[in-house]
Amino acid sequence: MTNPVTTIPIPAILEIKNGAVLELEPTLEKHGFKKVLLLFDDFTFHQYKTDIIHSFSHIEPDTAFLNDHPNVQGLITYAFSLPMYDVIIGVGGGALIDYGKYISFSRRIPYISAPTSASNDGFASSNCSLIIDGKKTTVPAKVPYGIVADLDIIQQAPDKFILAGIGDLMSNITALYDWEFEEERGFGDVNAFASMLSKKAVNSFIRTPMNDIKHPTFLKELISSLTMGGAATVISGSSAPISGSEHLISHALDHYAEHPQMHGIQVGMAAYIMAHVQNHRAERMQKVFTRTGFFEYVKTLDIKKSNVQYAIEKSPLMKPNRHTFLHEDWYRKKALLLLDNDEILNDVFI
Ligand SMILES: [Zn+2]
User: What is the pLDDT of residue 142?
Assistant: First the structure.
């Protein structure tokens, strides 16, 4: 039997520009949304709520904010305490975007993510990261109905958020190589279209001038590439096109390290390690991380080498059903050896 042509849910709204969050109303009207909930985190509630509300003239959106770190049960309880809305718009950082996605998903309400930072691909992906039993866990949800990324807001976020986004995007390179490795070893199939999309996304980003990571052109490239990566996961029905061995190291750090760092920062460092282990595009990875100041920032975090070591050892346990490079003893040893001998790694970790 031949594979049928598939139908894929992709965001119906995609606005990546300066001032995007102040032009929500015409977009919502075009899509027939009247009853609207704007969901904020503590920061966006104080910083942007008033301006956003004033930008509406016909629709009167409700507003709410979530400022603590609710667990899944808390989120579900909250979701079902809400009246029915036509659409929920999450305006906030990575955590708020994920909470909003999960709330909308459990109520089957269309969701628009309006991220205040480009720190990872969560604003465009179908998964969300939630706290279960005190630990960060990836939970399936639905791809957002819309993405509204306001470059004015994203530009104002501290550099580290942009650097984290760069780390998460660069990991497409190692993730794709893991995916091919997995297929060669007889575990699972690579979806050619998802793979192409993820590869094109990161390659297009790599060609962007990197002298100013706050330049609108750079940010637009970063965000659209992260968005394409998110779409790739919807096509393949798995996170494989954007998440491989490097994400396993990051998940293990989330589990075991005393002080886990931002997702994209951990993933970026792990991608640098894995590019060397895979012996594939390591030089390019190094150039991007040097030019953007990624390594310089990581150096300020005092990440313990022993934590990374332990995370590499434990990495296959994070996803036992996959078969990345790190699922094989030999490559884990190679990663550990690199950790001891690589000049950059010795410089950035303590
Ligand atoms: Zn990621």
Answer: 85
